[in-house]
Amino acid sequence: MSVDLSTSLGSLKLSAPTLTASGCAAAGRELAQFGDVSTLGGVVTKSIMLNARSGRPTPRMAETPSGMLNSIGLQGPGIEQFIEKDLSWLTENGVTTIVSIAGGSVAEFGELARRLRDVPGIAALEVNISCPNVESRGQVFACNHESSSDVIRTVRSEWNDETPILAKLTPDVTDIVSIAQSVVEAGANGLSMINTLLGMVIDVDAMKPMLGGKTGGLSGPAIRPVAVRAVYQVHAALPDTPILGMGGIRNGHDALEFLAAGASALSIGTVVFGDPSAPWRIARELGEELDKRGYQSVREVIGKAHQAG
Amino acid sequence: MSVDLSTSLGSLKLSAPTLTASGCAAAGRELAQFGDVSTLGGVVTKSIMLNARSGRPTPRMAETPSGMLNSIGLQGPGIEQFIEKDLSWLTENGVTTIVSIAGGSVAEFGELARRLRDVPGIAALEVNISCPNVESRGQVFACNHESSSDVIRTVRSEWNDETPILAKLTPDVTDIVSIAQSVVEAGANGLSMINTLLGMVIDVDAMKPMLGGKTGGLSGPAIRPVAVRAVYQVHAALPDTPILGMGGIRNGHDALEFLAAGASALSIGTVVFGDPSAPWRIARELGEELDKRGYQSVREVIGKAHQAG
Amino acid sequence: MSSSQQITSTITSISRVGAYWHMVLRAPSIADAVVPGHFVAVAVGGDNSSMLLRRAFSIHNATPGESIEVIFAEHGAGTEWLAKQQAGAELDIIAPLGTPFILPRAAVPCVLVAGGYGSAPMGMLARALKKMGCHVEVILGAATGERLYGVLDLKRDADNVTVTTDDGSSGIRGRVTDVLPEIIGQSGAQAVYACGPMPMLRAVANLSTEHSVFSQCAVEEAMACGIGVCMTCVLPVIGEDGHTRMVRSCVEGPVFRGDRVRWDDVHTVPSDAVGAPIPGGH
Amino acid sequence: MSSSQQITSTITSISRVGAYWHMVLRAPSIADAVVPGHFVAVAVGGDNSSMLLRRAFSIHNATPGESIEVIFAEHGAGTEWLAKQQAGAELDIIAPLGTPFILPRAAVPCVLVAGGYGSAPMGMLARALKKMGCHVEVILGAATGERLYGVLDLKRDADNVTVTTDDGSSGIRGRVTDVLPEIIGQSGAQAVYACGPMPMLRAVANLSTEHSVFSQCAVEEAMACGIGVCMTCVLPVIGEDGHTRMVRSCVEGPVFRGDRVRWDDVHTVPSDAVGAPIPGGH
Ligand SMILES: Cc1cc2nc3c(=O)[nH]c(=O)nc-3n(C[C@H](O)[C@H](O)[C@H](O)COP(=O)(O)OP(=O)(O)OC[C@H]3O[C@@H](n4cnc5c(N)ncnc54)[C@H](O)[C@@H]3O)c2cc1C
Ligand SMILES: Cc1cc2nc3c(=O)[nH]c(=O)nc-3n(C[C@H](O)[C@H](O)[C@H](O)COP(=O)(O)OP(=O)(O)OC[C@H]3O[C@@H](n4cnc5c(N)ncnc54)[C@H](O)[C@@H]3O)c2cc1C
Ligand SMILES: Cc1cc2nc3c(=O)[nH]c(=O)nc-3n(C[C@H](O)[C@H](O)[C@H](O)COP(=O)(O)O)c2cc1C
Ligand SMILES: Cc1cc2nc3c(=O)[nH]c(=O)nc-3n(C[C@H](O)[C@H](O)[C@H](O)COP(=O)(O)O)c2cc1C
Ligand code: FES
Ligand code: FES
């Protein structure tokens, strides 16, 4: 098998097509027991905020059919500790690192970008404007054209021009294509999609929502058809904007589906919890799926499902 | 066990808590091999349009993890044949019948209501303003406040005052609560939720979308957390509006979850395809789940998960 | 529409036969009602399966008061799971389903054409036809010899069996349709029965019609429910009134008259179908 | 953090013991690395399962070069599936996981307190402590006698075993905490080890602290990943610096110092925790 698995997200070249998904691999270190993290397409780190954050009360998860709900609520050490402890480990270990940032306000996003701007070892910035685990739905910037453009425009103005900015979108909107268009106009170089869907599980013994945070984000294979649809729609509208695709990718076949829909690279999220070696396994399986069908590279199948018209 | 399984949707009394979901039991006749259809809470018929409609090309389905996609595209015989052949069978067999209507325009909805207004044997009208399987996304009325209110207002004006109107909502919107409020203001007596989520599966051998209609509606247990969340949110905002809950209900435990979230009765959809006796089985299991927890009736648990605050 | 039963059935035996699996399911009351062309819908994956939908298989044989049999190929996750089951395991099944083959009114010569596992229902059919006194010719085709099923059994059940394979590894190199016209001619067939992949059915149906022979074809469309409630399994069929309708293959089929199916339009909605989309309309 | 391995393990034996199941898993290289308090994460439901997440179980025993053992209760769909597996079946497991019990530096008297299947890790721990020369007292509690596990084995492994049941069906009627103070007193215990339900752990930890005895508690929080990457399994723990942090019980635990866990605040984020929500802020 001689399939070329390399790909790119705009100006960012990736040696492998699979990355971890934000929030599903912490800052990569724990996965090192299961594989060489530097051989992954990259690690997308858990969304970091300016200050330390303790997240939402537990229980923070509920298993659902072919999926799960989480309500972590962006627990993290804050940007300074992140740079000092996590980013340094990633850089030392030669990991392609995409730093995900989350802010409670447009200004906080701007400040995060400014703080990270001159830190070495960042391959791209993922701007999480779509976390459902915040206290008010109004804080989900990506639900609205204006707020999502505001965030991206501000981050753009604080960021450098060499390193791509990916905007992370939620599918919980009436029209994801128009949100995608807004953030690209505002300066995003690429899109990460999709974030989780807002969901709830009720504990019928306690007669209250199962999660401490009441609602949570639904992820895993259950949501894959929604993710593939979103990637397909957005790629159709914005064929030149690279997409980091995710949502329930479990094996090489699923990965190929996202590429065909228009993703240029893939983040592996929930499936890592069940199989920590999944990001490596899926890259290998993707190679086999491509080979079996006579393809020589990842690149040639990106968006291929659009050609049939 | 002496649990009272009766419930109601506004003025409509139901002897049992489980109904079929529109499009998942045709007009009830085929299910008669598996149980006495007149003992169900009711049959919600496949959405009917004014004229005969052949639907979308095949393949019309794809199995997905704990779910499925469908792109039937509202195939049906048109309102006249429906009244003559389907509704008459339901009425003769003493089935509580909720007729689902779908129109390509506000006027078509109005005409359907007018045509059905004086037909005997209709327990309620379900107004499907949320079918994703239409050629243009613009036709999904429930994506937009104005178009959904327009439809409901028009149906209301053509309909009688004794029989409830349920508006069927899609979760594929940024804010389902405000859509719910709009349609209730426009005259809906209750809400049916949720319809399917827009999704896609790609055939990576043919390198094109698997379904003839490209996109389809995602249903089944995979979407249950989204449905429970939607019911919970809308019940919190509109506690006096009865909700017919649906989305991946598979057993009595799931049914109880929807009741606790705020549904007054339940439609069983996709799960019927795997288990045609599911609507009866789930009612029985719900009785057991209630009994086990010391409840005496369906009514006392409706919205119960909201009390914990 | 026959009345179907949903039962928990025990696997009496399961074994590999060439490229396929042969499975016997205990189903006393169902077996009594089965006639050739019926199918069974099997739930797969067990409790907590991520696969919600049943898998459909032609009924290969029915022993009244006892059991039914199926022949299946490993295709995807559901049939792979099924192949791993062992005798003694229980399956949730629904049968008999569908509109079966219609037997001729008199003892006429018949040709049965099958591709791959399409031979599954043909033994039962051949025996029923023989019992009526029909002369029965069988044509079995497959890509390779390994993918032929039931040649020996059919030699016993029918008057004559002709085998074709794409690669010539067994029988005549070629397709079933290469030999069909000659066999129709020689046998004076007045009815053709076919089961197999859609392109084969199309060719068989068209050839039969060209030779003025009445044909019945068992089609295979993706089915979500198998009982007529979901409308996923439709194909364009011309009705008695001459109008084309999108008809459910699970209840109105899987057996259709070969001259009634709009083979070239399968997977489309022909513009002259009842209720077809009006261009510019919705 | 110990280095964990993900392997395909064969079930060597599985059998019912009272209200629980005892399962032996072949895991040569893992067994070598296991110490008391480690846990294993097991994938459930097989291929095409709708259950994505692993189930965590304390490691009950490890035979170096051979196998590990677990004791489990049927709780929901995952453990019900596990109980249906048979010897010879394969499971995908990850182990050893978590921060185990810390053994005392000297041969001091110890009390091991377990509720229900919380006794699973106690045999290994008792043997390790005995080997060091510690006097080992065990207190086992459960709702009923049927829900006690391993009384006889622990009688062999420890110096003394006291049993309590809520209904008095075995041993003393009452709770483990009813007898704990006396046993601490009598044995002059300098360390308490506990495993069991959260309310029990809280009571044991608080009693130990009141008696100025150092305690270690193995907690049980819902875990999505078990390896430290998801942040679902956190609880409020006071660090060396006196600050409370929401700490991962899968890597920093499951064993915590009893006096460091904010038992009353489990399932909440205390307002003085590092990074706690600022009222009015986000
Ligand atoms: C009336 C009828 C009779 C059949 N008889 C036989 C038989 O006797 N022997 C046999 O081996 N197979 C038969 N098939 C095909 C068999 O149903 C499929 O091979 C099987 O459903 C594939 O399931 P899977 O999970 O292995 O594949 P997957 O591809 O994983 O299945 C995914 C989904 O697609 C559907 N699907 C996939 N392929 C087919 C297909 N070819 N036809 C219909 N649905 C499909 C499945 O039912 C499932 O819902 C028959 C199909 C029909 C409709
Ligand atoms: C560190 C640790 C050690 C454990 N040791 C044992 C043991 O030795 N023996 C034993 O019988 N059980 C033990 N448990 C509990 C065991 O993990 C659960 O009983 C099991 O996960 C339930 O799965 P289920 O599918 O049967 O239940 P379900 O309720 O259907 O599970 C649904 C989800 O909730 C999670 N969950 C449910 N109950 C628990 C629970 N009590 N703790 C953690 N997660 C839960 C499951 O992992 C799953 O993700 C331990 C748990 C932890 C965290
Ligand atoms: C436990 C958990 C935590 C997550 N945390 C974040 C986060 O911090 N930032 C973010 O952008 N996405 C977060 N996500 C979303 C994932 O990155 C991903 O978009 C989503 O889960 C869909 O992919 P999957 O189905 O492969 O998990 C989280 C998901 C999970 C399950
Ligand atoms: C095959 C199929 C056809 C459907 N047709 C309709 C329809 O005609 N009208 C409608 O309002 N909803 C239709 N639905 C949506 C269901 O009524 C239901 O809202 C949805 O499937 C969620 O419930 P479930 O997960 O239990 O199936 C259809 C769903 C399926 C799977
Ligand atoms: S498969 Fe559902 S109608 Fe035929
Ligand atoms: S279970 Fe994932 S961090 Fe502990």
CATH topology (fold) name of the largest domain in chain C? Rossmann fold
* Name given to the CATH homologous superfamily of the largest domain in chain C: Nucleotide-binding domain of ferredoxin-NADP reductase (FNR) module
Unreliable residue stretches of chain C: none
| Rg of chain C (C-alpha, Å) | 19 Å
Task: Determine the strand fraction of chain C and express it as a percent band.
Answer: 25-35%
Mean pLDDT of chain A equals: 95
Q: Which superfamily, in CATH terms, is the homologous superfamily of chain A?
A: Aldolase class I
Q: Rounded to an integer, what's the Rg of chain A over CA atoms?
A: 18 Å
Work out the helicity level of chain A. Answer: 25-40%
Which ligands does the model contain, each kind named once?
flavin-adenine dinucleotide, flavin mononucleotide, FE2/S2 (inorganic) cluster
Distance between the termini of chain A: 30 Å
Describe the biggest sheet of chain A?
Answer: 8 strands, parallel
CATH architecture descriptor of the largest domain in chain C: 3-Layer(aba) Sandwich
- How would you write the strand order of the largest sheet of chain A? 3-16-15-10-9-8-7-4
Could you state the oligomeric state of the chains shown? Answer: heterotetramer
Termini separation of chain C: 33 Å
